[in-house]
Task: structure prediction
Amino acid sequence: MPVFRCGICGSQSWQALSEMDGKTGCPLLTALCLQCAVAQVTPLPDAETLHAFYAQAYREAYKGVRRPKKKHVARAARLASERLGWLAPRLFPGARLLDIGAGGGEFVALARARGFDAEGVEPHAGYAAHARAAYAAPVASVPLDALELRPDFHLVTAFHVLEHLRDPVIALRRLSGCLSPEGALAIEVPNLSYQHAAPRNTFFAAHLFHFTPETLISTAARAGLRPLEAQIAGDGAVIRAIFRPGAGVAEAPPASLAAEIMALYARRTWGRYLLSPRVWRKLPARLWRVAEESFWSLRCRRAEDIIRRLA
Ligand SMILES: [Zn+2]
Result:
């Protein structure tokens, strides 16, 4: 029996939510904390293994490349444009932005093209080098725990980062240390309570923690952050939330949440997934998106041209 200690609340009370890595089919225990309802890979990998993985192997393992291809740029640029649209009400010309886990730098490059003073950090050396070479985007190749904390950013963004980290509460505290007095922190993570995911599309070795809207807010409260807004996006698959430092409504998630999550995953089968009309209804939009991204990646000679088109 593995030893479980929740990385968020410290509880040792758990239940197995999944026992397989959906990507590889290899054994992988993801345990649900029965106290705070956050799910986590058990045991967690040690810090050195994780550093080495993100610095050298993550993109290769997940995308098969050392630097993004144009089709990856087209997708990342479309997402960057959507995210900037979401954040637009909180931005002003010249606002200082810091993007954590900046990937190939598309968000930083597009934000700069739209008049913001954006920079990024990305642990993967090849992706950070691409950001600097393709867009002249200031993206430093450093892991989060080596990040110099300067409290002068109006907005710090971390899209699909928190679920990859060994200690999300400490990471959130570090990120809030980068905020200016009026600054805010924008977080995007996959939604554990998404009802319509394919059965093998949730649990991977790289996703160490899994949140619902309620547990993301209660986790952030442990880092001294209160929510300004939280919304479900991407057809329910994604949580987007904005936080500010400050004592918040640190409400614990409802006691029934862990049981609801266990029930949701017990119901998740390929049969139910394939018979769900919602899955089929979203297929045309998905195909259109892929076609559009392929079109722009073929049409544009350089990655930079894809960004310029959306600027
Ligand atoms: Zn817990």
Q: What stands out?
A: The chain has a mean pLDDT of 91. The two ends are 53 Å apart (CA to CA). Residues 173 and 223 are 5 Å apart (CA to CA).
